[in-house]
Amino acid sequence: MPSPSTASSSQDYWEAVATEYQAVTRIAEDDFHFGPLVPGDRNLKILPPLEPGDRCLELGCGGGQNSIHLARQGARCTAVDISNRQLEHGRRLAAGHCLEIEFVQADLDNWLPPFPAGSFDLVHSSYTLPFLHHPRQVVARACRLLRPGGWLILSTAHPLAHAEPIELSETKRGVFLQNYFKPPVERAEQLDGQGIWQTETCQPRPIAEVAAWILDNGLWLRDLREPRPLPPSALRQSPPPYDSDRWRENLEHLRYIPIVIVFAASKTEEDRI
Ligand SMILES: C[S@@+](CC[C@H](N)C(=O)[O-])C[C@H]1O[C@@H](n2cnc3c(N)ncnc32)[C@H](O)[C@@H]1O
């Protein structure tokens, strides 16, 4: 057994975990997902209508399934991620659908986008914000890249997602959150090919804090959702677009608190860049 040593960077963690992540997570390519076990956009109808040729940018794309879904409807998609392995998976999936998606390897925390302001009709990100060290700056850059009238769709970890399950009695179960304004940070570890433990942190933020990142950039907040995981009977009949056995193990607990929050905002038409 190799002796564990401490981590280096986010990228090392995601390179180490990517293959298993894609193997154990069932992610649809024919719906837009917002996070674990919750319904996709076919059901929630949060995304704006897109025209063929609209330009979309995905931040923290993983295997790019959301971009693939949008590209299948005629959008021109760019998808950014820190992990080369995640991007390789995305390239393979896109090739399988004969789709041309521009996959870009970059650390969003330090990314200087090579696109002029106003380049995109839609910027979207599913469950990547809590892994970033400078999410406020990343959201600001995303807002700048939107054209007037363009949309920003962000799904992220709900502040309750890391609350601790508690059982007060056989019938009284709930969650414990010591400090809403500083939700607990979760630390994930993964052994890489060299026997080194790579770590990553996941940090939910209070709802008003994330909303302020969007509003401070002059966007209108158009929708805010706390989607609920589907009940077990529905999960059996029609699996959600982001699903895994590991997430399902916690379903009983997750049915009663939101773990995903979705923000939909648009850039005002008057806001000429
Ligand atoms: C939980 S996964 C979500 C991936 C994808 N959105 C999905 O729903 O399957 C988080 C993703 O964020 C990426 N990521 C983490 N930190 C990043 C950073 N600093 N810059 C770019 N991507 C990052 C990871 O490589 C990973 O693919």
Provide a short characterization of the protein structure.
Helices cover 27% and strands 27% of the residues. The chain is α/β, with parallel strands linked by helices.
Structure commentary:
- The protein has 273 residues and is of the alpha/beta class.
- It has one domain: Rossmann fold (3-Layer(aba) Sandwich), CATH 3.40.50.150.
- Helix content is 27%, strand content 27%.
- The protein is built from nine helices and 13 strands.
- α1 (10-24) runs parallel beside α4 (84-96).
- Residues 1-7 have low confidence and may be disordered.
- S-adenosylmethionine is lined by residues 10, 14, 27, 60-62, 81-83, 86, 107-109, 126-128, 131-132.
Reconstruct the topology from this structure.
Elements: H1 10-24, E1 26-27, H2 41-44, E2 55-59, H3 65-72, E3 76-81, H4 84-96, E4 102-105, E5 120-126, H5 135-145, E6 146-157, E7 164-167, E8 173-176, E9 186-191, E10 197-202, H6 207-215, E11 219-225, H7 232-237, E12 242-243, H8 245-249, H9 251-254, E13 260-267
Parallel strand pairs: 2-3, 2-5, 3-4, 5-6
Antiparallel strand pairs: 1-12, 6-13, 7-8, 9-10, 11-13
Helix pairs in contact: 1-4
This protein binds S-adenosylmethionine (SAM).
S-adenosylmethionine binds at residues 10, 14, 27, 60-62, 81-83, 86, 107-109, 126-128, 131-132.
Question: What attributes does this structure have?
Answer:
alpha/beta, Rossmann fold, seven-stranded mixed sheet, two-stranded antiparallel ribbon
